[in-house]
Design goal:
Pnp Oxidase, Chain A, 8-stranded antiparallel sheet, homodimer, globular
């Protein structure tokens, strides 16, 4: 567990835009939960907006909808077993923090806890619920970000369906071909 | 250029869920354009829905909005120079197919052409424009998919900002830990 430091929320895309599987932690009515999620996208730099399709079949859906908050945690590739298992058990009957030996961290801006073992945590508040009823699509504002100081580019997990992931992490610098770098 | 074959639209997540940079091709009023895009998410299996934040500052935004169609093309890691350059020139003054030596393929369901050099092409029709005005967020239905037969898991590009990409492609099978595989 590398020490995390404050990170600019407008740069959250560095970790979320590549499309990793993330672990979403939530708190509602005194209980905490975690779910895995792969259907998400950065939507804006400032405010720092991030959208996610959270199926209503997940226990977390109601917890996040009612509390209006969650934390997006970025697991690294070495956590692949935990990530798989979290996605294959039910938060209504399982305390996933306890079951998988994960450590809660106190958040600064939301009630939901972060996950200490993850590389980064992004605290989120529900910002636009226009598509929640029709498509289970939540738009959040990332209000606080904490990222481990090392490594600069962790190996991450990207789900491809069928119980398989691909990993990403090898950096290809292309700045010389960019006229304006965003 | 590997031969592409018809692919089930409900399985588009295999290529798009990992979060690669994609090349969006569009056709409107007799001209064709290409843009790079990294802000997108799978939203549903059936119908096969895919959402993308297409900034109104891009020439493609209006072309896609007016035509209601586009093709999502998946470039492989060896195309990193072309991907970078396409993202750094303007479609209003540049014919990007000609400039970068890309070959158009005829689409089956939409007017916009695909890009032969890409690993896969997903033909899209605008399905839900609720968030187009407010957030430039388009929801498309993928109506036709064509994927190269080999390799099964191409190396893909994932943008992290600052002119750099990370690559993904190494498969980690975890099916034994999944109780229900989706």
């Amino acid at each position: 567990m590398s020490k995390k430091v404050d990170f600019p929320v407008s740069d959250a895309r560095r970790y979320l835009e590549p499309g990793p599987v993330v672990l979403i932690s939530s708190r509602w009515k005194g209980s905490d939960n975690i779910m895995t999620l792969g259907w998400h996208s950065i939507l804006e730099f400032t405010p720092s907006l991030w959208g996610a399709m959270i199926s209503s079949g997940n226990h977390s859906h109601r917890m996040i909808r009612e509390s209006g908050e969650c934390v997006v945690n970025l697991p690294t590739a070495d956590m692949v077993d935990i990530v798989s298992l979290i996605g294959n058990c039910d938060g209504e009957s399982t305390d996933k923090f306890e079951e998988f030996g994960l450590t809660k961290t106190a958040s600064a801006e939301v009630g939901a806890p972060g996950i200490a073992q993850c590389h980064a945590s992004f605290e989120c508040k529900l910002y636009d619920d226009t598509l929640v009823d029709s498509r289970n699509f939540f738009i959040f504002e990332i209000v606080k970000a904490d990222v481990a100081e090392r490594p600069a580019h962790p190996e991450t997990l990207h789900y491809i369906g069928g119980g398989s992931f691909v990993t990403a992490g090898k950096v290809v610098p292309q700045k010389s071909l960019f006229t304006k770098v965003t």
